[in-house]
Amino acid sequence: MKKYFFLFLLITSASFSQEIALLKYNGGGDWYANPTSLPNLIKYSNQTINTKIRTKPATVEPGSPDIFGYPFVHMTGHGNVVFSDSEIINLRNYMLSGGFLHIDDNYGMDEYIRREIKRVFPNNQLVEIPANHAIFQKPNVFSGGIPKIHQHDNKRPQAFGIFEGNRLVLFYTYETDLGDGWEDAEVHNNPKEVREKALKMGANILNYIFNN
Hints:
By secondary structure, this protein is α/β, with parallel strands linked by helices. The chain contains seven helices and seven strands, in the order αβαββαβαβββααα.
């Protein structure tokens, strides 16, 4: 009896697990940067805010119908980004139908991704997210908004978004490098408190999409 009960628990828990994905895009940018970041964020989130995310993130292309199976898609890199016309349509439909895209500029992506965001949402403005937005409040409070994780040009960190109605569908983090803070400690040698800050902000992002 215990054997069958345990099997039932495994099947039940597996049915409630969710999967998140990394976006594999064209244009020459290194979409594969920070390979340990998402697995570490998933582990931290599952341990601290009780998410049930599969430990290994998937990889998905912007034009693939598979993207609709992921509530959260993460995008990063240092260089050029180019979406085809069909990828633009697919990404827009993905976000309008409930998906969430987080873009984390890993330094050098900004001019390219702003151009592509404008193509995805030509009638929406990319706006800076105020520090009192829910994404900075729960479960961890970031009273100053997006935290600074990695220094490049000594610019202040900023978080921008695209809203559909009241729903944040695209979250673009700039001059913060959250993904660097999510990586294994030895990759960037960030202090423990800096990595903890980055992971807490990442947990806030996941908490927001699973509860809004």
